[in-house]
Amino acid sequence: MNKKEITEIKKQFTPERSSIDRICGCYVDGEKNKRMELAELFLTLPEEEVFKYCEIFKKTLSGTIGKNLLNMEFPLEQEMPDGRQHFLMELRSSGLKDDALLEQFYDQVIENYIYGENYLILLIHAVYDIPGKSTSNEEMFDASDEVFDFILCSICPVNLSKAGLCYNPEKNNIEGRVRDWLIDPPAKGFLFPAFHDRSTDIHNLLYYSKQPEVLQEDFINHVLGCRLPMSAKGQLETFQNVITETLGEDCDYETIRNLHENLHEWMEEAKESPDPVELTGRDVKILLEQSGAPDEKIQNFEEEFQEIVGENQTFLASNLTAVKKVHIETPDVVIQVSPERMDLVETKMIDGKKCLVIPVDDYIEVNGIQALTMKSQKKQKEETEK
């Protein structure tokens, strides 16, 4: 799923546009006991509750694709009658009205979800009547010929509110506040099936993780049955290792700077596209060639890439380079520079030492205090002499 498709589904999570027909849930304590279950027609809930639930569902589809939101594919065996995809299909087809299937799902989550405190499992079923699109890309609600029948799961921590003082208007008094068990925004969740090319894709789902580096492997393997993707941090570390191993002694500052500049240019060229920029082994090879890597270093790169990273593995460009600031570090100095202006930092030999050189024009600031440069001093002197 891409940004446009995710946004289209998120728009359904409002009281006015809601296509949700049923909500179910199970409250689990820190000892993995089921404390409470709910099953309701969604639009019969009080308006304030509907609004709060919709905020949770929107959050389950929020974040960066490739970091918080991961497109996951089912292996073929999971689409067999005893597979996890097949189970999720049954759960969806039941409209969340089959108590036995719900209990089975709750039990699977409780067994495989690692969390030592209280949490709430929320499940919704919805049927979105997909509007057609005109040639000018405007929605035509009277031209729908397909529905997107889906379930969304949100797993939310439940924590005791903080102790404090409050004003009691009935007693006109200041007193200790009653502490409540509050439902926090979701930590994990998933959308099944995926909404791809504005259509149902039963071979994939969209997984949400508030913490990109805590994906919960057991939950993904045993509850969802999907292939565990490489995390954003894992992609970055693997990419760094591939570049370092490939370049060896030729892994100098200029080559790395060129690599990040070219990578940033690729992202800028594709910024209007809703799809994230993905890099295959061949793309990384081209990137190295454009960045000045020696031919002999990248002659057999694609084969080596497959051996190190794996066949069909891709990287998301957004996981490989900083969008806002690039960090250049030495043991004692850290420099932050805009990706578009990495050319301002270069290396030069000065007094027999290799140095990082930054041109200084008329502005330097140190801890909020502006320091005079040679140019600003000259300008100040000229103004004084007038």
- Gyration radius (Cα, Å) is 27 Å
Cα separation of the termini: 65 Å
Low-confidence stretches: none
The average pLDDT score comes to 88
Q: What is the tally of beta strands?
A: 22
The backbone outline, from C-alpha atoms, is globular
Number of separate helices: 11
Question: Could you characterize the architecture of this molecule?
Answer:
With 386 residues, this protein is an alpha+beta fold. The protein has 11 helices and 22 strands. It has helices spanning 3-10, 47-59, 84-93, 99-112, 217-224, 232-247, 253-269, 281-290, 295-298, 301-309, 374-385, and strands at residues 20-28, 34-41, 69-73, 119-130, 132-133, 139-140, 146-160, 165-168, 173-176, 181-183, 188-192, 194-196, 199-201, 204-209, 278-279, 315-316, 326-329, 334-337, 346-350, 353-357, 364-366, 369-371. The strands form 8 sheets. Strands 1, 2, 3, 4, 7, 10, 11 and 14 form an 8-stranded antiparallel β-sheet that branches. Strand 8 and strand 9 (173-176) form a beta hairpin. Helix 4 (99-112) packs antiparallel against helix 5. It is globular, with a radius of gyration of 27 Å.
Spell out the blueprint of helices and strands.
Elements: H1 3-10, E1 20-28, E2 34-41, H2 47-59, E3 69-73, H3 84-93, H4 99-112, E4 119-130, E5 132-133, E6 139-140, E7 146-160, E8 165-168, E9 173-176, E10 181-183, E11 188-192, E12 194-196, E13 199-201, E14 204-209, H5 217-224, H6 232-247, H7 253-269, E15 278-279, H8 281-290, H9 295-298, H10 301-309, E16 315-316, E17 326-329, E18 334-337, E19 346-350, E20 353-357, E21 364-366, E22 369-371, H11 374-385
